[in-house]
């Protein structure tokens, strides 16, 4: 090795030592920076942990307060339900407390005069009170509301008023009418808990009742067949009349429990009935809703056999027929008291087959639909109309 190399060795050693010193300083700076970041992260983590713990304590406090408020509200709701139940029982009690029934006596002389007057006008052409000239074309829609009560019964609205109340007559012989405030309460509740009760002074028979202009018209069960006019506002008997027809028989062959069907249409009040004198066919009478007098009577060509129900539309009697083994109900006989529509020219209207046969069918002239009771099911039929001249 030459002298020159020996001179370079100290220089190289000094350079290496300087590089090592710089590298160590660089490593120390990086470690210092890393320690600062770790310290900063630790401080932030501690702060976040403290904030999270404070937030958790705050949420737990809010949940505890909400639970206390929920318990207080549940206690208040239970207390309110108890008060509502007590109030409903008190209302039911008050509504069933009717005044003593009035003495309804039969004036035989007046009845004989009514029979004579009605027979004088029997089968005369009817002078219409309105310009109604519609007839049923077909059943446009059917709606099954619910199943309630016995297999036979009646449900209806006031056919001449604006009330939304639903009146329910469960069975064919009873003295208590259920009143639901609206259709909603009737369809939603399966029991009579939401219904008011009206206890009648005399029990009814059949399913031929009618609610008309704030009054209930029904057939008294005991004694002679008597039409009772009962005020729904005052809960008292307003008037009564013995139906002037001797030896009455069930009006419908398939509904042996109904002797008189009270019906309403655009013309007013009607009575559908049958007598032993002409037991094969159905009879029709126009009633005065105020005095219950019979204004006019007709013998119709509509047979009682296999008839299950009937209603009146624009002065025309529509009789619904079925079979002993329930099939599709159909309007097969129409009798127009004004003589403008012959039975053979009327549309043959079929009702969709459901469960059995109808124990009642109430036509509502304001809604143009029928409230029917079919083997315990409450059904509405919406009718499509057309002019009689188009038939």
From TrEMBL:
Coarse class of the protein's main subcellular location: secreted
Classification via InterPro entries: Olfac-like_dom (IPR003112), Olfactomedin-like_domain (IPR050605)
Subcellular location: Secreted
Cellular component GO terms, alphabetical: extracellular space
Residue stretches making up the Olfactomedin-like domain: 131-387
Keyword Coiled coil in annotation: yes
Cystine connections: 132-314
Coiled-coil annotated residue ranges, if any: 56-97
Signal peptide: 1-18
Gene Ontology biological-process entries: signal transduction
Membrane-spanning segments: none
SMART domains listed in its UniProt record: OLF (SM00284)
Descriptive protein name: OLFL3 protein
Species per Swiss-Prot/TrEMBL record: Rhinopomastus cyanomelas
Gene name tied to this protein: Olfml3
């Amino acid at each position: 090795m030459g002298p020159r190399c020996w001179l370079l060795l100290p220089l190289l050693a000094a350079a290496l030592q300087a590089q090592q010193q710089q590298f160590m300083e660089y490593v120390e700076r990086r470690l210092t920076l890393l320690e600062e970041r770790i310290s900063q992260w630790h401080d932030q983590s501690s702060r976040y942990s403290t904030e999270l713990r404070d937030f958790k304590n705050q949420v737990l406090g809010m949940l505890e307060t909400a639970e206390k408020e929920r318990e207080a509200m549940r206690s208040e709701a239970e207390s309110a339900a108890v008060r509502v139940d007590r109030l409903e029982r008190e209302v039911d009690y008050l509504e069933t407390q009717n005044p003593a029934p009035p003495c309804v006596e039969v004036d035989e002389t007046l009845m004989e005069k009514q029979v004579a007057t009605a027979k004088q006008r029997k089968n005369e052409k009817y002078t219409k009170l309105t310009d109604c000239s519609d007839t049923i074309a077909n059943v446009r829609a059917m709606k099954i509301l619910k199943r309630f009560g016995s297999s036979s019964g009646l449900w209806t609205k006031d056919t001449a008023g604006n009330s939304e109340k639903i009146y329910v007559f469960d069975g064919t012989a009873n003295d208590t009418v259920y009143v639901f405030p609206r259709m909603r309460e009737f369809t939603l509740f399966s029991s009579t808990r939401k219904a008011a009760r009206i206890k009648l002074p005399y029990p009814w028979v059949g399913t031929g009742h009618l609610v008309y202009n704030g009054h209930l018209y029904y057939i008294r069960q005991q004694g002679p067949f008597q039409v009772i006019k009962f005020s729904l506002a005052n809960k008292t008997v307003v008037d009564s009349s013995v139906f002037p027809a001797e030896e009455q028989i069930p009006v419908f062959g398939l509904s042996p429990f109904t002797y008189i069907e009270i019906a309403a249409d655009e013309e007013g009040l009607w009575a559908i009935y049958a007598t032993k004198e002409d037991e094969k066919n159905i009879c029709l009478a126009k009633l005065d809703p105020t005095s219950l007098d019979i204004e006019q009577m007709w013998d119709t060509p509509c047979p009682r056999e296999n008839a299950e129900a009937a209603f009146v539309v624009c002065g025309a009697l529509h009789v619904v027929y079925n079979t002993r083994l329930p099939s599709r109900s159909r309007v097969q006989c129409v009798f127009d008291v004004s003589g403008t529509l012959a039975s053979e020219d009327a549309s043959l209207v079929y009702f969709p087959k459901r469960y059995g046969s109808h124990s009642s069918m109430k036509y509502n002239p304001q809604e143009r639909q029928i409230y029917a009771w079919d083997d315990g099911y409450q059904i509405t039929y919406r009718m499509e109309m057309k002019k009689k001249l188009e038939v």
